[in-house]
Amino acid sequence: MSRQPRRELRLNSFQMAAPSHNWAGLWKHPRDNQAQYNQLRYWADMARTAERGLLDGIFIADVFGIYDVYAGSADAALAAGAQSPQLDPTMLISAMALVTEHIGFGVTSSLSNDHPFSFARRFSTLDHLTNGRLGWNIVTGYLESGARGLGRDSLRDHDERYDVAEDFMAAIYQLWEGSWEAGAAVRDKNSGVFSHPERVHAVAHDGPYYRVHGRALAEPSLQRTPLLYQAGSSARGQQFAGRHAEACFINGPTPAAAAKSVKALRASAQHAGRDPYDLLTLLGATVIVAPTKAEAQDLRDEYRHYLDSAGQLALVSGWTGMDLSQLDLDDVLPFAKTNAIQSTVEHLTRNTPQPPKVRDLLDFSPVGARAPVFIGPPVDVADQMAHWVAESDIDGFNLVRTVMPESLGAIVDLLIPELQNRGMFKTRYEEGTLREKLFPAGGRLLPASHPGAAYRR
């Protein structure tokens, strides 16, 4: 595998349309405004701040279902506001796009709960309305509660969910790439022809899980296929990512664990006939930055006071599929094969220097975050980020929110200038779509080496 020249650092603000994201309970902090997650102004203000800092994107996580593995009940998650209640993140994008010009928007949406025909129109719409700044995080879902809510007896097995995903992608590539020819929509007022019917082709897909027969309802957006993100780090997830993903979100409590995931993902892309460095890898990271080390540590201690232990364990129970209410705080977290997020189980039990105890999940630590926690003044945080990049070959970070809006404001006003002074981060946006911004040497459409491009007429 050839090593490519280092790209500039990629940074996303990692968000969720819920009162709490990865750190349950911080909405209680007196300076926090996450309880306003259901107001458009909250998202518009966030987008303006993130774009002021030249961040590459606002990435909005989503989960379809409620966290009810802990103690067999959703009570802890609901009481703590732990990713519940939640909104549909796709509904937020237009408002943020209206008040910004460059920043991208990554949206998690589970294909298990949708159909390619309707999904293609919805995401084409968002790519139109953002002028090509949309990305889709392809997920298959991991909560049994979501499956039950849809009237199913249970969630499909982990690996079969990726078989479903492959069929979904085969159908949706045809809709996005192959149904409408370039130039089919002409908007010719003189002739009265808006679209040439002979250039709009019906899709005929009969797969093992999905059937699609008909023309795509939306004309092609600037990117046709939105930029494709993916977050699965299991063996099956890495295989899927190697074929489809343009950027992957990973976690890892140590640089060695992250490097293992990055190496496997790049090898999977190469095996699929792609350039391994055409797949960006973005590591989750919690950042608490302040002008001095003492101030940053004081912030950590202050934030720690508002963490909700039961809500945090409800989240981890949902991610791992293990009911942590059955363990004492001083019990070592066991490994178990579950139908939830297999990579999370691996990282928490096998990819740490020593097996963590349950109480270790309740603090701002690499175990609690399942990823690095950078605390300190801008110089120290930038040093830590540079170390992880060098050791693990990642391309950037998903910056997990803590207390809002001050955590994002500190990143923009303190950390970004330090990274720019080191030449690690851009000083202006590239022009064009999200794909063109992240891959300046490429174009706005899927590259020819991507399997989705094979469906283009």
From TrEMBL:
UniProt keyword list: Flavoprotein, FMN, Monooxygenase, Oxidoreductase
UniProt superkingdom: Bacteria
Residues the record lists as binding FMN: 62, 108, 158, 162, 233-234
InterPro entries attached to this UniProt entry: Diverse_substr_monoxygenases, Luciferase-like_dom, Luciferase-like_sf, NTA_MOA
Start and end residues of each Luciferase-like domain: 29-389
Gene Ontology molecular function, alphabetical: monooxygenase activity; oxidoreductase activity, acting on paired donors, with incorporation or reduction of molecular oxygen
Coiled-coil blocks: none
Similarity comment text for this entry: Belongs to the NtaA/SnaA/DszA monooxygenase family.
Protein name (Swiss-Prot/TrEMBL): LLM class flavin-dependent oxidoreductase
Species this protein is from: Comamonas piscis
Organism phylogeny: Bacteria, Pseudomonadati, Pseudomonadota, Betaproteobacteria, Burkholderiales
